[in-house]
Amino acid sequence: MDMAHLNLASYLFAALAFLLFFGLQLTARREGLPARLLVVATLVSGIWSLVLAVASLTASPPYHLMLALDAVRYIACILFLGSLLQTSDNLNQLIAQSRLLRIFVPLALLLVVMDLFMPELGFPPVTVLFSAHLSLAVVGLMIVEQVFRFGDRQQKWALKPLCLAYGAQFAFDFAMFAEATLFNHLDLMMWVGRGVVFALTVPFLLISARRIKQLSLRIFVSRQVVYHSTLLFGAGLYLLLMAAVGYYIRFFGGEWGTLGQVLFFALALLLLASLFLSESLRRQVQVFITKHFYANRYDYRIEWLKTNQKLAERADDACIYQTALDAMATVAKAPAGILLRRSDRMLSIQAHLGTITAEQAQLIASEVIRAEAFCLQSRWIIDLHEFSEHPERYPELTLDVPLLHKYGIKTLVPMIEGEELTGFFALGRLEGEPEINWEDRDLFNTVTHQLATFLSLHEASEALAESKQFDAFNRMSAFLVHDLKNIVAQLNLIVVNAVRHKHNPEFIDDSLDTLTNAVSKMQRIMNQLKQSTPSPESRRQVALCALLEEQVARHQSQQPQPELSCVTDATIRVDSERLSAIIGNLIQNAQDATDKSGSVTVSLTTNNDWVDICVSDTGSGMSAQFINERLFKPFDTTKGNAGMGIGVYDARQFVQNCGGNLTVQSELGEGSCFTLRLPLHS
């Protein structure tokens, strides 16, 4: 075959590809300027390829006409690419909005005129024309780069094939015209191969046209026809390639060349036959064609919103699992099913649907659990019909299919979160419904992830609420024990001194006062346990100086004895019982932290609308780190088993509830000062 026939075949191949793409676009619904410009660019490319193919049959091809058509093709392609960068309603508006196009289009049209009249004028030189066409290729590469760079992530996914196609065309032209500029003539082999290269870029344009909404091509061709045509086309390309390699072996193989060619071609046919017999390969090709050349069966956005609406319509939290099963059954069009959910490390039945009874659900569940290991490893949805017909697709899986079919179960959908299988949907199927395909599986997986997240949030909320209930109970118990500890300490002091002072009238009077105070505290504790919130009646007007005197007097039996300093008296509305307990606890803490030779002082001062109660000592003191990290942390104590670690925490909570605050000043070895600032008017 001579170069003329190769050139004819190359550009006829390109013309066929472009004109077929043009015909497909005519059957599509075109919206917007980019879609119309793509049609024009494809038609111009098809005519350009056809003219170059016919020109190869003439004795002296009209190169000036070829170069002019080449420039026209560049104008059409770059206008289309420019329309992807601008939002324009018509061509004039597009050119007016783009500075690059305002410069490029007139210069390209001038180049068309120069190409047409070059033989008659003899000017400019051929090298200048080649350089001009080289510049067109450079402009094309620039605008392709801009189209891809300025798109967001979703747009890049749609534009990537298109940019690859036009990038390959412009890059090939750049290489060809660059060499022509250097050597003052076009390379014949590159010129011939150009048609094949351009034809191979058309599938990429088709993919992008399918992905971009404005250029959407709704190709109503039978899926089976496209599927088998693709396989035959691929087989043809494979055989051509193998034939070329076989010819190379024969040409360079010497006396063994013919035998090597025969053996190689036989092995190639054997490999091709094995590929065609591979069901896995055929299914992958079929899914690829369906995904990229046909509209999706489901609109996942709509399905997602429908599932959300279904979940939002639940009556109460008690039927949350039933709601999830109903939502999944609606998506899968399942008349019956059960939901298994992991609880206490076991899969248990949480809901059932349709005619399935509780006893039948137990039988189904015992069978479904057998698929747990397989689904966790493969993350597959099990179609029981496919499992019956092709068990080899589900290796190492054993199920009693007749039992599951007896109760109407047709599909098993695992619920996998991270690396853990957290549940199963066992679903039925309506009579006459087709077998589930890859689109059904994608939809089921999407909705299952949505429902798994929904159930996990619900379960986490329940666990958190339960934890809060236990936390509230533990906190209440801790405060109760803390108050009882102080009461027991007072009663124990009476018991210890009773034998020695039982005949002392003053001791008897003091003991009676202590017992009266203990009974009062116990009654207050019982009232608090009966009420969920503090009663407003517990607050009354309290003379602070008298309250402090009472607490100082009660702690005189322990060294160092506390001293009271009331610069002025003040009366505030507060829960006197709790405030007395808090002051007493702070005095007790100060005494515990101070040697007998030290001092503990309680003072009362007023400052505008505030009253300050200070309990200070000259004891061991605290570091700033301890105050910041541990002092107000509940249940953290430095007294071992003798303390609860909630006294200071309780004091701060009480003061803050009264509208005040508690501050601490302390240094190691210097002592501490706790200041309760309370509002005079509450």
Automatic annotation (TrEMBL):
Q: Which residues cross the membrane?
A: 6-26, 38-59, 71-88, 100-118, 130-150, 162-182, 188-209, 230-250, 256-277
Please tell me whether the keyword ATP-binding is annotated for this protein: yes
UniProt-listed InterPro entries: HATPase_C_sf, HATPase_dom, His_kinase_dom, Sig_transdc_His_kin-like_C, XrtA/PrsK
Which EC numbers characterise this protein's activity in its record?
2.7.13.3
Q: Which reaction does it catalyse?
A: ATP + protein L-histidine = ADP + protein N-phospho-L-histidine
Keywords from the named record: ATP-binding, Kinase, Membrane, Nucleotide-binding, Phosphoprotein, Transferase, Transmembrane, Transmembrane helix, Two-component regulatory system
Q: Which residues form the Histidine kinase domain?
A: 479-682
Which GO molecular function terms does the record list?
A: protein histidine kinase activity
Q: Name the PROSITE patterns for this protein.
A: HIS_KIN
What NCBIfam families does this protein map onto?
Answer: PEP_his_kin
Protein name listed in UniProt: histidine kinase
Report the source organism: Corallincola spongiicola
